[in-house]
């Protein structure tokens, strides 16, 4: 079987139409605004000047209707959750400090008020948040508790009709809080709610932190500036601590738990743990936005590197002409598989945003948990890919890529923290794996390793083994005697599915032994657990890419996307060849053939590299690196 040839020329606009997808008009609007002169890169700006520039840009965004897209129309919002997340994603083409500050203000702070609060909070605060009349913070992370939010130490104790918010020790200080060091006037503070001498778990409270006029910290509130960071210096991250700060009873964001005037606690969700995870589940928009923004930054880096690769020449051929570096297979190998994976993750992100937009609050718990799991896994893979791909792009540009003026160092620095904020990636993949092993049952509550291990040992393992024993026979994956199967989408998908089933089954078998030593067995299998999460998400990403190709109406663009998808699938297989060989899924000769197929695809896609990055339609001012001036 011959692989269909890609036409010699493909219109990048046809690819852009597929990439822009459901919110194409919104994407065009964000691109148009970001092309304005005030949305510029912060090269050579000091910290204070950078912060001031980002705040000015934030105000310019507030002059449009996009910051309100995710809010309730009853309070001036657009009721368009998917559009809201997409607009944050598009900001990732420019200064990532602006994306983060916008995400803190409208995604985290405003999102918490809307999704955790009730009508009394919405009526009082939402319009002011959308219009930037009230700048706020999202104070969750503590010095001693980042991923383990359930065991935060800040307290909010009900006393005499109100709450006293208190930081008991230095470990409980709120850390890395965006908008806190300079601009924020109020914080959503996550604290252990205590009433009647009983702790009811983590809840969110609205706590004023600064005087509106002077900007000085309010009594009992201590604010420290985190100072210069490795990147994102346009965001004023700070530390917050509270010395018996009193707030009214109405400060509690009470959608999932409330305290009456007499101190009686009530909640529609009886279990403290289940209530906590339901509360956190409403806040996944931030996680989804980070994944999308990481994708935008990756696209920008690859666009810079591929444009440079078509200009830079090194070493002469026998005829004396110097060779364009992108014509070297080694250079193609650096950039084109990364570009293929970027396309794949884009389509997986688009699918996730649509699911987030369409899901109803009354959807079954299983559906909601699956969405949370998908968001966690995609955020992990997208941000790890950003870190790796931007570094590769920097190296592909040599010394030029190391100069700040050529933008790649800033992208590298700004995205580095993406792997650990909005959820540490390692913890997020464990969350994905737990979802696989528990089939998203109600017991999906406590994320601690000990509780997870005990649950596996007691309830899950036999069910998982029964489910995965129905795998298709392995010989189906190796039925072809040549490399034709490599370019069949059904073969690629079966291979990814089989790997996922086998890895999940292997984890279950190992955790079956956890009854005697739950923590020890879980800890020793943690690498296996993480692999289960990763291969599951990789399978979802391939499926999303295949679905996007089916939606492509332009035959030339579709043919090109087919080859890009092949490169994503085969380069992913090549990266994991040790597993496929070790588990008998590929023979040694077919493993070598995978590498040959990746080489072939790189060569075939080389003439289309510029088209593929031009299709991202990144505003030209964000690609105006001096190294690209011919």
Automatic annotation (TrEMBL):
<dbReference type="GO" id="GO:0005504">
    <property type="term" value="F:fatty acid binding"/>
</dbReference>
<protein>
    <recommendedName>
        <fullName>acyl-CoA oxidase</fullName>
        <ecNumber>1.3.3.6</ecNumber>
    </recommendedName>
</protein>
<dbReference type="InterPro" id="IPR046373">
    <property type="entry name" value="Acyl-CoA_Oxase/DH_mid-dom_sf"/>
</dbReference>
<keyword id="KW-0560">Oxidoreductase</keyword>
<feature type="domain" description="Acyl-CoA oxidase/dehydrogenase middle">
    <location>
        <begin position="137"/>
        <end position="245"/>
    </location>
</feature>
<comment type="similarity">
    <text>Belongs to the acyl-CoA oxidase family.</text>
</comment>
<dbReference type="InterPro" id="IPR037069">
    <property type="entry name" value="AcylCoA_DH/ox_N_sf"/>
</dbReference>
<dbReference type="GO" id="GO:0033540">
    <property type="term" value="P:fatty acid beta-oxidation using acyl-CoA oxidase"/>
</dbReference>
<dbReference type="GO" id="GO:0003997">
    <property type="term" value="F:acyl-CoA oxidase activity"/>
</dbReference>
<dbReference type="InterPro" id="IPR036250">
    <property type="entry name" value="AcylCo_DH-like_C"/>
</dbReference>
<keyword id="KW-0276">Fatty acid metabolism</keyword>
<dbReference type="InterPro" id="IPR009100">
    <property type="entry name" value="AcylCoA_DH/oxidase_NM_dom_sf"/>
</dbReference>
<dbReference type="GO" id="GO:0055088">
    <property type="term" value="P:lipid homeostasis"/>
</dbReference>
<dbReference type="GO" id="GO:0071949">
    <property type="term" value="F:FAD binding"/>
</dbReference>
<keyword id="KW-0274">FAD</keyword>
<dbReference type="Pfam" id="PF01756">
    <property type="entry name" value="ACOX"/>
</dbReference>
<feature type="domain" description="Acyl-CoA oxidase C-alpha1">
    <location>
        <begin position="281"/>
        <end position="437"/>
    </location>
</feature>
<dbReference type="Pfam" id="PF22924">
    <property type="entry name" value="ACOX_C_alpha1"/>
</dbReference>
<feature type="domain" description="Acyl-CoA oxidase C-terminal">
    <location>
        <begin position="496"/>
        <end position="627"/>
    </location>
</feature>
<dbReference type="Pfam" id="PF02770">
    <property type="entry name" value="Acyl-CoA_dh_M"/>
</dbReference>
<dbReference type="InterPro" id="IPR012258">
    <property type="entry name" value="Acyl-CoA_oxidase"/>
</dbReference>
<keyword id="KW-0576">Peroxisome</keyword>
<dbReference type="InterPro" id="IPR002655">
    <property type="entry name" value="Acyl-CoA_oxidase_C"/>
</dbReference>
<keyword id="KW-0285">Flavoprotein</keyword>
<keyword id="KW-0443">Lipid metabolism</keyword>
<dbReference type="InterPro" id="IPR055060">
    <property type="entry name" value="ACOX_C_alpha1"/>
</dbReference>
<dbReference type="InterPro" id="IPR006091">
    <property type="entry name" value="Acyl-CoA_Oxase/DH_mid-dom"/>
</dbReference>
